[in-house]
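Table S2 (text version). Query chain:
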Amino acid sequence: MSSSNIHSTVNFTSSSTAITPPLPSVFELLAQERLTDLIRPCLRQVFKFLHEIRPLSNLFRILYKYKDEFILLIESIVQWLYLHFYSALIGEHFYGLKRTANHRLRSLIFSVFLPYVQLKLELLHEQLRTSNNQRHATFHILSQLLPKIQIFIEGVSWLYRLGYAFGRTEYYSPMLQLAGVKLTYSKTPSPVTPPSTTAGRFFSIISQIMSSGLFLIQFVDWWNNTNGSKQKPTNSNIIPPLPTSTPTRQAIGKRQCPLCRQPCNVPTAVLGSGYVYCHSCISDYVKRYHRCPTTQQPVTSEHLIKMYFD
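Corresponding structure-token output:
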């Protein structure tokens, strides 16, 4: 009786040890995290490109104004599909990883929604830092508290990474522990959708295209950071020279506004760049984007000068 108990105990121990999935290295997790984080900058560039094509289009203006919310919606749909088909986010699937538990909702909350909240907090801190409401006690407390919260979150995340690297914890980040999932290698395809179905094959092709595209963008970004920065330090902040001749009223009246492509109505010059726009066009643009649309230099409403003639 005792020998059979010992034999069963040994079998149970060996089987439990055998089914323990191997954990990926910290370098693989850092790589997949960086690849997943490329979704938001890529979509942001797409919205910026659409807005620059038609800066006065109401549709593109709304898309650009609420680009963070549209990016959140698109990223949530994409990551939900990846979690449904592969039990992994897009970067995790590219590096052959998967999540040990199929908690899709919690994974979306801690992997997609919380970064959106963190981005909004950073924008709020930037607005509080540049606004004139620092004298108010509430604004002053928020402007002092938000950076400390961000430093605390980053510190805890790096403590988890160090603990994971030295084998002190099986969770790579606090977000994974809050979501109740671990990352491991994916040796077999997900059983949720068989690869023989049309939907499975179609999403597999789309998945490969998206993953390869993000990896290519990551490579291009690395290439530009290493080589492109050496070619643009002298020309990046050059402001076009101002015209030497004094413009007349007729010349300014016939000048086309760069924004609406119509003759300037109430010509208004931007101090520092010298470009002339319609007063309504440039005022609305500066209030929204706080920069000159031609030179991309930081501009406020105080830099707009109406041009009057006797």
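Notes on Table S2: DSSP finds twelve helices and five strands in the chain. The CA atoms of residues 251 and 263 lie 10 Å apart.
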